[in-house]
Amino acid sequence: MSILHDETQQEIAAETARVLGARRDKARLLEVLDRCGEWDEGFWRTAVEQGWTGLAVPEDFDGLGLGLTELGLVAQEAGRVISGAPFLTYGHGAVCALLACGDEALQDAWLPRLAQGEVRAAIAFAEGTDPIPLCPQVEYRDGGLHGEKAGVAGALAADIAVVSASRDGTPVLVLADLNAAVSGQLERTAIHSIDNGRLFANLGFHGLPATVLAEGDAARDLALEMQAQMAVLAAHEQTGGAEALMLAARDYAVERKAFGQPIGAFQSVKHRIAELYGLVEIARANCIHAASLQGQAGFLEAAACARLSATEAYDTAARDAVQIHGGTGVTWEGALHLHTRRARSLAIELGNGLFWEDVLVTGLTGVAA
Amino acid sequence: MIALDEWQERARAWLAQAVPEFGLAARAGLTQDEDLEVGRRYMAAKYDVGFSGITLPPEFGGQGLSRLHKVLFDTLEMQVAMPVGYFGVSTAMPLPILIRYCEDKAWVRERVIAALRGEEIWCQLFSEPAAGSDLAGLRTRAEGGEQGWTVNGQKLWTTFAQYSDYGILVARSDPSVPKHKGLTFFWIDMKAPGVTVRPFRLANGDIQCNEVFFDDVAMADSQRLGPVGEGFSVAIATLMIERYAASDADGFGPPIEAFIETLRPLTINGRPALEDGRVRGVIARNHALRQGLDSIRRRALLAMEAGMEPGPEGSLNKLFSVRSRQKLSELALDLQGAGGLSYAEGAYTKADWATSWMGAPTMRLAGGADEMLLNTIAEKILGLPQDYRPDKGVPFNAIPV
Ligand SMILES: Cc1cc2nc3c(=O)[nH]c(=O)nc-3n(C[C@H](O)[C@H](O)[C@H](O)COP(=O)(O)OP(=O)(O)OC[C@H]3O[C@@H](n4cnc5c(N)ncnc54)[C@H](O)[C@@H]3O)c2cc1C
Prior knowledge:
The complex is a heterodimer.
Chain A: H1 7-23, H2 26-33, H3 41-49, H4 68-80, H5 87-101, H6 104-115, E1 121-124, E2 139-141, E3 144-152, E4 160-167, E5 170-177, E6 186-190, E7 201-215, H7 217-255, E8 257-258, E9 261-262, H8 267-292, H9 299-324, H10 336-348, H11 353-365
Parallel strand pairs in A: 1-4
Antiparallel strand pairs in A: 2-3, 3-7, 4-5, 5-7, 6-7, 8-9
Helix pairs in contact in A: 1-4, 4-7, 5-6, 5-7, 7-8, 7-9, 7-10, 8-9, 9-10, 9-11
Chain B: H1 4-22, H2 24-27, H3 32-49, H4 67-79, H5 88-92, H6 94-101, H7 105-116, E1 122-125, E2 141-145, E3 148-156, E4 166-172, E5 183-189, E6 195-200, E7 209-219, H8 231-241, H9 256-263, E8 267-268, E9 271-272, H10 277-305, H11 317-335, H12 353-363, H13 370-381
Parallel strand pairs in B: 1-4
Antiparallel strand pairs in B: 2-3, 3-7, 4-5, 6-7, 8-9
The structure holds flavin-adenine dinucleotide.
C-alpha cells in the first residue's frame, strides 16, 4: 500500500469530513458527558449508513475489502469531530480476531453482522495497569469466563466481546456473545468517567459462555496484532483531534486581539501553534506509514510510532489550544474540553505511552524492558 | 529518459566504486586543504560520469533531469560521505541564478562547468554583522549604475569564501527607500582588488566561515543579476531553490541505530543501559519523530514522481530533526561517562557523537534559525499574522540604528 493516497482514498476522507461536519452535534456530545451510560447514537447510525463498519471487512463477508488506510482516514475525520461512539476501532479489533481464528462457522456468524453494523464489539484485554497481561487473571473453564476486566471501552453498549483469559495457565482469546448472558453470568458496572461517551464499564464474568479464537502463543501474538491495528486507528483519531485543536487555536489567534494586535502576532502564541502543526504532521505521517504496513514486516514498530506521536500531538494540542483560548478555553459551552477529555481517554485506552515505548524499543533493540 | 530506479541503481553503483578513492577512510587524517583537493578530484570524476548539475539545463553543462533525481542522488551521496561540503553552496544557489539572470550565456556555461567540476568555487555573500535573520537590513553599499558600480562594506559568515573564485552578493543600492526595496543582486570576482577575505574559527574548531571586506571594489553593470532594487526577491528565489534538497531525518547527525549500538555495551546502576526506562523513552520518542519525518520525505518524493507538488510539511525537517540530533548527542556523550570526553575535530557528523553535538548549534542557526522557521511555518502555512515590525515601510536611512 502506498503512502501517497490515491484518488479513492482522498475521496473517502473528503466525503467522511463532509458528512461528519454536517451532522456534528456538539450539544449532544456535551449532554452525554453528564450522563453515564449514554452515547451519541447519531454518530453510530451515520457510521452504519455510510458503510464505515464494513470498510475493512473482506468482500466475502459483505464488507468492502479495504484496509487500515481507508478505515484510518475515516477515524481521522471522526477524531476531528470527536466521534460519538468507540465501536469503529473495537469492531475492527473483533474483525481481526475473527479473520485470524480460521473458524468458518464463527466467521459466517459474526463477520457479516459486524460489517453491516448490526452488532457492536468491545475488546477486553487490560487488567489492572497491564494493557495486555501475559497470563490473564480472567479464567476460561468449562466453556465459560470467570473474573473481571476493568475499564472496557464500549462495554455498556457492546453486543459481543473478544476477551483474553487463561485456561489452565495457557493464554486464550475467546469471543463472548454478551446478549446471550443468563442469570448473573455477566455484570456490567458502569464507570462514571471523564468521557462518558466512551461507555466504559467493568465487566464481571460469572460463567459467561465463550468460544475460543486462539490459544497459547498464537493468542498472545494475535492480541498484540489486534492491539496494534486498533492503536493505529486510535492514532488517526488522535491526529484528527489534534489537528482540529491546532486549527481552532489558529483561528482564535487570528481573531482575538490584545494589546492592540491579534494574539497570533505574539511569538509565544504563534510559535506554539507552529510547533503543533509540526506534531500533527509528524503524527499524520506516522499514521499513514503504519496503515500502509498492515500485514507486513515492521508493522508493530510503525504502529508504536504512530501511537506515540499521535498521543503526543493530541495531548500537546489539548494543553496549548486551551491556553491560547484564554478563559474561553475552560468554559463548558466553549466545548474544547470535549477534546481535552478525549485526549485522555484515547491515551489510556489501548495502552499508554510507556507501553508503546517498550513495544517499540524491544522491537528496535531486541532487549526487553 | 531511462527509468528512475535504473538511474538510481547506476548512481548507487558508481558511488560504491568511488568510496575506496574518495570515502571517509581514504580521507582520514588529511588537512582541510588536502581534503579539498580530493574533493575537487571527486567533483571532476562525478562530472565526467554525468551525475553533476542534475537539474541544470544540458546547454549549460547540466543533466536536465528532475528534482527527484537530484534528491535521490544527494541522499545516496550523503550516505557514503563523499567530500562535497566545499561545493555545497557553490553548486546549489549561484548556478541557477547565473543561468537565469546573466546575459553572457557563453561565459555562464564556462562558469557552470568549472563549478560543477570543482575547478572554481562560488560563495554566497548575504549575511552581515548587523543582518542575519533580518537579511533585508544589510548595510553593504553598491553605488553607481549603468556606468559601473562600487561596493563598500562587510559580509560575515561567508562559507568557504577563503577558497572562492566568485560570489553572489546582495548590496544596498538605495538607502532612501524601505529596506526590502533598496537592494540589488550581483556576482562578484573574489580576486578583484579591494576584496579581503579573513577566515575565522567556529566553536567546533572548523575553519569554514569568513569575514569579507569590500573597499571600493569595482563591478561592471553586467555583473548585476536582476533589476536594480529587486535584489531581495532574487535572494529569496535563491534560497527557495534548495527547498527540496536532500533532507535527513537524523538532522545530519548519527541515526537512532547508532545510538542503540553505542549504548548496547553500557550499564546504568549495574544493569544494561538498554533496559533502563529513561533510555528506552528517549529511543522511542526520537525514533517515532524521525520515522515521521522520514515518511514525510518519502511521501514528498512519491508526489514529485507523480508530477505533483509536495506538501508544505517538508519544511519541518530541519527544525525538528536538528533539535532531536542535539539532545540525542548530548545523552549519547553523557551515558558514555569519561568515554564521552574525547573529541576528534573534524570527524563526520553522522558517525561521531561529539562532532554531531558540537556542530548542532550551527545547524539550528545557519540556513534559517529555528525561530525564523517557526515564523515561516506560522505565517506562510498557517496564515498567522506577522510580528510587530517597527521598521516596516520606513526608509532604510531613517531606521534608528
Ligand atoms: C556556520 C555558518 C555558516 C554560514 N554561512 C553563510 C553563508 O555562506 N552566507 C551567508 O550569507 N550567511 C551565512 N551564514 C549566516 C546565517 O545565515 C545567519 O547566521 C543566520 O541567518 C542568523 O543570523 P545571525 O547570526 O545574524 O543571528 P540573528 O539574526 O541576530 O539572530 C539571533 C537570535 O535572534 C533570533 N531572532 C532574530 N530575529 C527574530 C525574530 N524576528 N523573531 C524571533 N527571533 C528572532 C534568532 O532566531 C536567533 O536565535 C552562516 C552562519 C553560520 C553559523
